[in-house]
Amino acid sequence: MNYESGQVSGEERLALPGYGDEGADRARTRRRWLIGGALALLALLGAWWMLGHKKAAAPAGAGVVAQLPSVTVTVPGRQVVDRQISATGSLAAKREMPVGVAGEGGLVRQVLVEPGQWVRAGQVLALVDRSVQVQTANSLAAQINVARSDLSIAQSELDRAQQLVDRGFISKADLQRKAATRDAAAARVNVAQATFAEARARNGRLDIRAPAAGLVLTRQVEPGQIVSSGSGVLFRMAMGGEMEMRALMAESDLAGLRPGARASVVPVGSNRQFAGTVWQVSPVIDPQSRQGIARIQLRYDPALRPGGFATATVVSGAATVPLLPESAVQSDRTGNYVYVVGADNRVQRRPVKIGTVNDTGVSIAQGLSGTEKVVLAAGAFLNPGQQVKPVLQANGNRT
């Protein structure tokens, strides 16, 4: 030990009492920890290896059946369902009557009807001022009286001439001239009467009248307005108040549709259903949209407003097809499909074409024969090829 410098060398430190024993204890402790950790790791590896060999030694399928998901399936069979066609379109008057000026027109003095009012055939809708025309008619009526007076005078002169001709005072030539004068006076009476009748007819056409009984839909004229034959439509009417829906349908749907088919119409914004009948099927198809129009006749109701939008369900015959609940039918970007469980209890995806959708279910137009086991629910959680445990649900409606 170097006492002079106050420092202790390595050898001298080991020579100190108790120092060497403490280092040895620390080294032994470290070795024990390392050995213990290695043994624990070997034990875990051994346990993992033993567990893997036990699973491999287990019989094939043991414990797997218990883990298969149970799914409810049904055999839908085939049922008779109505063939329904859904369509959209607009409401309109079945027979719309535009009403305008039939005569020479003039100043509208009074409008007598409002939209939504029922009118009879020939009823006056608006009055046009006729003060000038009335005076003209009165003048023509006076001319009739003048012509009748001339006829009366000519007839009297002819009668006197016939009495004098037998006595030789008047020649037969004079008698013929007086007869011609009488005939000309009679003709002037007829002309005056015809002219007066024409004036009366013109005056009658000044008033705007309903061409037939029906419902007034629109009014486009007001008192004080000057109207003429070029003024266009002043009133629009629905003949008899009959309404219709002009439903747009694809040409494939129109192919099997016939007049007389039952229909149910629901206007937009309303929950009411209006029963109707298809009375005309469009004979042409729009080459751009590939659609045609089916005209559905409806009874008048204030809720049916021409120009409004509506949806329709048309019943066109019946078909025998499989019927499934809505939960069984899935859809994605490729279309509609169902899951079918095969003989090996594996799930298969089956594309289908949907027909009618109503409260009883979804009819399958194409894709199923009705004898398959179709998954009723949980289809969204299945994958094609997945093995399942099918649970059959009875279907009392199968045919």
Task: Describe the protein's architecture and organization.
The chain is an alpha+beta fold. It folds into four domains: 10-56; 70-78 and 322-392, conserved putative lor/sdh protein from methanococcus maripaludis s2 fold, CATH 2.40.420; 87-94 and 242-311, Elongation Factor Tu (Ef-tu), domain 3; 96-226. The chain is built from five helices and 23 strands. It has helices spanning 10-14, 19-57, 131-165, 172-206, 251-255; strands at residues 70-74, 79-93, 96-99, 106-111, 118-119, 124-128, 208-209, 214-219, 226-227, 235-239, 243-250, 262-267, 274-281, 291-298, 309-321, 323-324, 330-332, 335-341, 347-351, 353-358, 361-366, 373-375, 389-392. The chain is rod-shaped, with a radius of gyration of 52 Å. The N and C termini lie far apart (112 Å).
- Helix proportion range: 25-40%
Q: Give the biggest beta sheet.
A: 6 strands, mixed
Query: How many domains?
Result: 4
Mean pLDDT value: 81
Gyration radius (Cα, Å) is: 52 Å
Domain YknX-like C-terminal permuted SH3-like: 324-389
Domain CusB-like beta-barrel: 247-315
Family: Belongs to the membrane fusion protein (MFP) (TC 8.A.1) family.
Domain CzcB-like barrel-sandwich hybrid: 105-232
